[in-house]
Amino acid sequence: MKPRSAIPHARRLALRAAAAMAAGTLAAPLAPAAKAAQTPAAKAPLIVAPLAPAQPRDAKARATGAKAPIAIRTIRVNVAPLAGAAINAAKWPALVQQLGSRQINVAGNPSVVAALGRSASGVNLQNSQANPYQPDIIYHGFTLSPIQGTPEGISVYVGGARFNVPFGDLALWSVLPQAAIAHISVEDANPLFGLNALGGALSVQMKNGFTYHRGEVELSGGSFGTLRGNGQYGISHGDTAAYIAVQGARSGGWRDLQSSALESAYADLGWRGPHAELHINGMFGHSFLNGPATVPAKLLAIAPGAEYTGPNSIEDTYARIAATLNDRIDSHTSVQAVLYYDHLREHLINGNGPVDAQCTDGSTSHLCGLGSTTPATLLGGGTVPYFAVPSGYVGYGSLAVNSTTTDGYGATAQLSRKDVLFGLKNHLIAGASFDGGFTTFTATNFDGLLNAVRVYAAPPGSGQGYQTDEPGALPSAEAIRNAYYGLYLSDSLDLTPRLTLTLGGRLNIAQIDLHNTEAASVLAAGQVQNQADLSGHHNYQHFNPTIGFSYRLTPLASLYGSYSEANAAPTPAELTCANPTDPCTLSNFITFDPNLKQTVTKNLEAGIRGALLVGGDGTLTYNFDYYHIRANDDVEFLATDLNNNTNGYFANIGGVLRQGADLALRLDFAKWDAYFNYSLIEATYRSGFQVASHSPSNVGGVITVRPGDRLAGVPENLFKFGADYKATPAWTLGLSANAQTGTYLHGDQSNQQPQLPGFVVLNVTTSYRLTPRITVFGEVDNVTDAHYYVYGGFSNPAGIAYVLGPAYAADNRAYSTAAPIAGYAGVKVKF
């Protein structure tokens, strides 16, 4: 009989994998022990790799060319909101992508959004505000945005607690201390994650003192006056642990009036008993972000760094306290729970072209609505007094100001039980959740001026400007209370040693109460705005089933498939802005509004995942996934030409189909690794409708959308590539590349205008370990200095003509430009 060390490498691998599978586990790697920190792609659910070569025991072993033993471990993924009920990834019937702290923190800039855009399959980013800390995440055509006005199609959980803001289901990454994130999972087709999981869910787990046992400080800086820093420290002693992280950044930006200031902190205290673990943690974040937004194309051609009108700023202050419990009652049963409270205050300032200007009849006693003879009214009565435009100023302007204050709170309890049912292995997960919120919203408008650089300025003696009363629109104030209830269940049963069947579902119940707190005002049509007009009670409920299977073809490859449903109840922001005859802007959501229907998706998904041994000491991990998601009564923010401004309203637009495929490949060797992702995304309307648009293709101000037209902002093809090479034991080099094909502009839902061009962007990174405790690093983004756009739409030609002049209005396309070449360097110190 051959000695064990002489058994061929691949055969030993298969034998150990088969043994692991027989025990109900999934073959997966232990990473090479000496591997340096790199910038890998999102972790696939199935990876196999050898350990670092071991020294043979004697000369005889060396002579036989003995190889190191192969170690196999199981990769488990959390498939419910609370951690502690993880399931073998090989048995789950849908795609789950994982990114760890190494992928999130690159070159001293911890960023979940950048990591998802860099290496997660099916994800592209767009940025309407032109601030690097405010991009939209688009996954398979579903959007998760930090900006009001975008229907959200992805749910987010942090530490088991819902992170979507109650008012508009936004996700504000700028206030989250991302240096403290342990890992993030991208979940497909999983209704257990509640409302808004139409396209999937993001589940974030934070670090604690039991899992992080050291100290670390990073400082970096570079282009655009950027300074960044973060520090973290974790310690455990016996059954007690503590962890703290702080993070901050300052940047001047690459465009006029573009700047960012962020600071955040996270702290966790943990206790362990014989079978239970309790954590209490707190989080604080503050961000002040200026974004120049989109700019008309002709102005960008002359001044690439220009801002159209300003100022445009959003300030967010966020705090949260939470407690989590994981109690392993016995070897089969565990209970998880979370209790949380959070507070958010958001303040928005938006400088625009005029709402009111000199009357068309030449009156010099008061201002009128733009292009009319209707007197503009002041809040509290009277008319807006006439004031002349000083020499050197562009003309009249307006300033929109709104504030949102939200208190969120909730709790979730979850049961996980692994047992034998009818002689078959079974894993049951069941839970109940409540998420509530109370929001106050106020919005108002001031008449003023635009100075020579198109920034709002108050007329002399007017304070902040003349506060106007726009009947039926501004000012507005609303008190909103929402309550979301959920019951969920998932059961995975091993029908055979190879085949696992998963059944489950979730019941979502949403209750939203709106109460107008603004005094009555007289409408243009002579109607009176009463408090009851803007008040209402809305109820939604839906049961979302799921069924799926996973079948193990070989010890290292499996097929999976599933059907599931998900729903999104209209948010308070959408319900208060759903009237096409009384539209709103991003600063005003309170109007007379009809009810909206909830969106329900039906999702089919299938794929194959696995791993192969290549080149003797390397591994190839692969995943191919197909999805087909049909949304009924989808919600979209539609433009309207009323109220002499860039206004719109939320509406149900019928069916939308999002389908496509993701291919993910990853190679791992001792000295280098590489990944390649390709995504095909087809996001199309399945129902026709008409909508107002400033697109040059409009007829009478309206475009007609037909079934088969593609959604704006979603590329058909996405390519992602990255590689890291360990040149020496201390020096690592990295390269990443992202490419996408063109996208249709927002406002061109009828697909009649040229697309926003596609692009290819390359980034390089490097790090050198000076000592075991000190590492220096550097990064060059957009190394080829590619010029491309990250968002596109259409501006109002009349507004362009007023602010910039008639010559600029001939082309009313408006773009948000990407950052040019930029370099950063820093140092990391461990202690």
Please tell me about this protein's structure.
There is one protein chain. It contains seven helices and 45 strands. It is mainly beta. The chain has a 22-stranded antiparallel barrel. A five-stranded mixed beta sheet has the order 3-11-12-9-10. A three-stranded antiparallel beta sheet has the order 6-7-8, covered by helices on one side. A hairpin with a 4-residue loop joins strand 41 and strand 42 (774-781). The radius of gyration is 28 Å and the shape is globular. The two termini are 50 Å apart. The model is unreliable at 1-70, 520-533 and 586-593 (pLDDT under 50).
Task: Itemize the secondary structure elements and their pairings.
Elements: H1 9-22, H2 59-63, E1 76-77, E2 87-88, E3 96-100, H3 101-104, E4 105-106, E5 109-110, H4 112-119, E6 123-126, E7 136-139, E8 142-144, E9 155-158, E10 161-162, E11 181-187, E12 201-206, E13 215-222, E14 226-237, E15 240-251, E16 259-272, E17 276-290, E18 295-296, H5 297-302, E19 312-328, E20 333-352, E21 356-358, E22 367-369, E23 395-421, E24 424-450, E25 456-457, E26 466-467, E27 476-494, E28 499-516, E29 536-554, E30 557-568, H6 572-575, E31 599-614, E32 618-632, E33 635-640, E34 647-652, E35 656-668, E36 672-685, E37 689-692, E38 702-705, E39 717-726, E40 731-740, E41 759-769, E42 774-781, E43 789-794, H7 797-803, E44 813-817, E45 822-830
Parallel strand pairs: 9-12
Antiparallel strand pairs: 1-2, 3-11, 4-5, 6-7, 7-8, 9-10, 11-12, 13-14, 13-45, 14-15, 15-16, 16-17, 17-19, 18-44, 19-20, 20-23, 21-22, 23-24, 24-25, 24-26, 24-27, 27-28, 28-29, 29-30, 30-31, 31-32, 32-35, 33-34, 35-36, 36-39, 37-38, 39-40, 40-41, 41-42, 42-45, 43-44
